[in-house]
Amino acid sequence: MTSDKPAVLGGIPIFSDLVPIIQPTLPSLSDLEEDILEIFASRMITNHKFVQQLEKKLEEYLGVRNVIGISNCTTGLMLLGRSLYLEGEVITPSFSFSATSLAIIWLGLKPIYADCDPIKFTIDPEKVKEKITAKSSAILATHIFGNPCDIAALEEIAEDHKLKLFFDSAHGAGSIYKGKRIGNFGDGESFSMSPTKVLTAGEGGFVATNDDKIAENIRIGRNYANPGDYNTSFIGLSGRMAEFNAILALRSLSMLEENVLNRQKLVAHYKKRLSKLPGITFQEIEQDSRSSYKDFAIQINPKEFELSRDKLYDALEAENVMTKKYFFPAIHQQSAFKPYLAGQDLKLENTIELANNTLCLPIYSHMEISLVDKICDAIERIYNYRSQF
Ligand SMILES: Cc1ncc(COP(=O)(O)O)c(C=O)c1O
Questions:
Q1: What angle do CA 20, 121, 304 make, to 5 degrees?
Q2: Whole domain around residue 135: which residue ranges?
Q3: Mind listing the pLDDT tens digit for each residue in 113-169?
Q4: Helix or strand or coil: residue 22?
Q5: Global confidence as pTM
Q6: Is the CB of residue 205 below 6 angstroms from any atom belonging to ligand 1?
């Protein structure tokens, strides 16, 4: 029967409308109305009451001493790096979003790439050790897709080698490492609240740190490093958060726990369905940790699945299911980073394997289990016809 065939082979697509890879989970407009009116009445439209309220609520939620609201995570990484007085080289993953390395380079530092763990997808502490030189000043690690890094091992390395340790926690809101919320680790962590994140402000971010001095630096730094008297005290930047973004983030924060728990259910269902197919594996989350599941990633073993990740991507696109090849190409494979690779050992086998074989499937906080089922039906149908591709 023609209609049984995957769309890519001429069958009818399982979805008549496009299934997006993510959708922000938004409060009702009426829920925001009172605060919007207050912002208009006060005419204080940036870095004011609601930003301060958000910072306080986040400090309580994370159990951290300081949260500083900023315009985005990349700016936070730059401000954090600036506050740590880094020099020379920063050891970092190549299996991450470009912004992790962009921040390092904007700081005038050199990113040195260490391979990642093939199952957890996060930077491998043993590989970090191999990259330490006299020029190393810090480790910048990413909690990939919300999965906390091997933080204890990274902390030990940082301490032994007198390196600073900070985190790209763009995906980390709602994640937990050994019973403690992400946001409490290293010298500081920078979070994103862009539209694709579980906790969203529309656009925005924040830095969390237990170090009061670093916090003060970032608070001044986000405002051109103007301490109040226009006598610029260091090289800061313009990185404040607007009040409108803060009210959206406050609503998003009040839904965060519920949203992360719903994502756990969605992922459990995806895993139950997809583990029946050979050649599909999942990112491993440690028992006493929790991923925010900002993304749900599957890894395709092309030999066992008998279809490559790229073929699956194309076939799902024909079924009207949007997926993402995060993070392909890996950072060190991208054009802009080529000038920074000289002299580096780039045998990043796990990174390349993950970049070539990982596919992120649709997930968002208000997604229904029935949608997961239908996406899995599409994957099964594609798999059943694999020999014809
Ligand atoms: C790992 C990672 N780091 C940094 C960023 C940049 O975040 P922002 O847009 O808030 O600067 C992203 C964006 O998705 C990301 O995925």
A1: 75
A2: 1-389
A3: 999 999 999 999 999 999 999 999 999 999 999 999 999 999 999 999 999 999 999
A4: coil
A5: 0.97
A6: yes
